[in-house]
Every structure is written in C-alpha cells, then in structure tokens.
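re: ur question from yesterday

yeah so i grabbed the chain u mentioned. its 114 aa long if i counted rite. heres the sequnce exactly as i have it in my notes:
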Amino acid sequence: MITRIQPGARMSEAVIHGDTIYLSGQVGEPGDDVVAQTKTALAEIEALLAEAGSDKSKILMAQIWLADMADFEAMNSVWDAWVDTANPPARATGESRLATPDYLVEVIVTAAKG
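ran it thru and got these structure tokens back, copy pasting raw so excuse formatting
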C-alpha cells in the first residue's frame, strides 16, 4: 500500500510505502540566511515525520543540497545540533542550483516508520 501525505498536483510532501517514508525536499524561507533556512527545513522534516508516524531517530538517509558549498559549515552547525547523534543517518551533501536563487539549502530524507 502507498500512502501520500499532503499530496498536490505536482508532488506529495511525503510518500509512505511499506515501512519506508520518502520526504520531498524541504527548504527554508526565501530571504533568510542558510542557518535560518536549515532550521526551517529541519523543523518541516520533523513535522512531516511525525505526521507519517516516525521521528528523526529513524532517518535512514539524508541528502543535502547547498546553493554554495561555502555555506557547508554554517549548515552543519544547525544539522549537528539537530541530528539524533545516537542514530545518525547516512548523509551526502553537494552543491546544486536550487529551484530559485532565494533557496540556499534543500534537505531530502528517507526514514523508517516508527
């Protein structure tokens, strides 16, 4: 069975298949700096995981896209304070042009159901 959370015409915010939760990319508010955008994206991830019946301790994989790798340390300062250090996920971080130049970071996660 497939369950879609907050489906729209283009995409769903999350899709659950079996015991795996796939989240769409989460971003912050345009105009904010990378620290604020990362905080917002991670808060959105927590909310979506809760809605899907999971939490950040069950994140399997995180993909993080930065508009500029110069923001790597600033983004990591937020990530390191947020991530469940007893259950850290696999993670990759890269640089990419995002949907709009106003977005500085996008975080995509796959998690297990709780």
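noticed a couple things. The longest strand covers residues 59-66. also The chain has a mean pLDDT of 97.
anyway ttyl
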